[in-house]
Amino acid sequence: MKLYCVLVILFFFTSCSFDNKTGIWKDNNSISTEDKSPLKDFKKISTSKEIFNSTINLEKKFKFKLSNVKSNLRWNDLFYRNSNNFDNFKYNNNNQIFFRSKRLTGHNPNERLLFENNKIIFFDQKGNLITYSIDEKKIISKFNFYKKKYKNIKKNLNLIVSKNIIYVSDNLGYLYAFNYKINSLIWAKNHKIPFKSNLKITNNMIIAANHKNNVFFFNKNNGEIIKSIPTEETIVTNQFVNNFSIKDNSLYFLNSFGSLYSIDINLKRVNWFKNLNQSLELTTTNLFSGNQIVNYKNRIVVSTNKLSYLIDSSTGKIISSQNFQTNLRPIINGEYIFFLTNNNFLIASNLENGNILYSYDIKENIPKFLKTKKKLDFNEFFLVNNKLTIFLNNTYVATFNVNGKIEEINKLTSKMKTKPIIINGSIFYLDKSNKLNIID
Question: pTM of the predicted model, to two decimals?
Fold first, then answer.
């Protein structure tokens, strides 16, 4: 019996292990390189491609159909509204300074402004919450939550305002609510883990995420935790700030690991998630980055440091990915997406399938208008009066028609220190002297 077993084993090895016909081994010393493992496919996916830099001309008979021009009266969210998508803004187009305030702070202001009830709201690097009344032409509230022990710590605040109350999360782990109208702190909670996301308000809840990529639903009235949902934590800290976008009952969350989540707001559970990071792990030399999620209809647009994605918001399916990146969020209007890429291309694509309608290199157009060879540095990107409007980080504003052709460049009265916002046909920003400018 033992002899029989030995013969069977010997037969097995001679017929399998040393076979040169089956393809398992090519010879006695080498393993087949026909690797069918998932890692091999992943390497193909993550191989870097040449950045998109092609000119594509718009078809001559093509006509864009845009939404109506809107005159908005508020800017309660740092990213404008729940979807993070801009409207087709109305601008009075007089290009004249309508108002300029006195200096509003002696410290560097945050780059984003809020606007409610004809008041500008922002914070500075010392953690001062400042509310300036345009009607009264003065600061009506200046509040600092932080004690002396936090005096020399840089504060990164995330704001959102609703009905006279400013809700704040910070990098020290605090969440608090301040009523600027009565100049009073309503409530404050120390959650002890730094927050690292924009804030959203919906269904009487505040939504935030911390630096461990945990999503929190808080009671808006007292700051108590209603529910938390953990997502992947990154071991290596990066500069990317987690961000949210909301459509109806769906919360979209992009975390610093590079994962995009769809979360049911009512049930507070994950619908789907998709990892958009092109690497197996994050290291100090390979960190994920991206800009704000924008959603419209049944589409999500996300631009990362590798690719720009068009995603079905119901299923998480990637409809298309293009090899260009943007520091400024794209604009979705009608059936189109408009991008301003990091390598200075103005691109329009189809919202349904992601196909590019046109692509023009604007680093040649703007310098020709300005008669300069200076490098372009973009501050903000809007759709204004049916025109694509680019604010540069100097004093210039470039206007392109929706077909991608440059029309004019105007010069502001002073250099911007914050990103501009557009309210009731006027442009608002703080200048390099920290004075509020309103351009009509």
Answer: 0.86
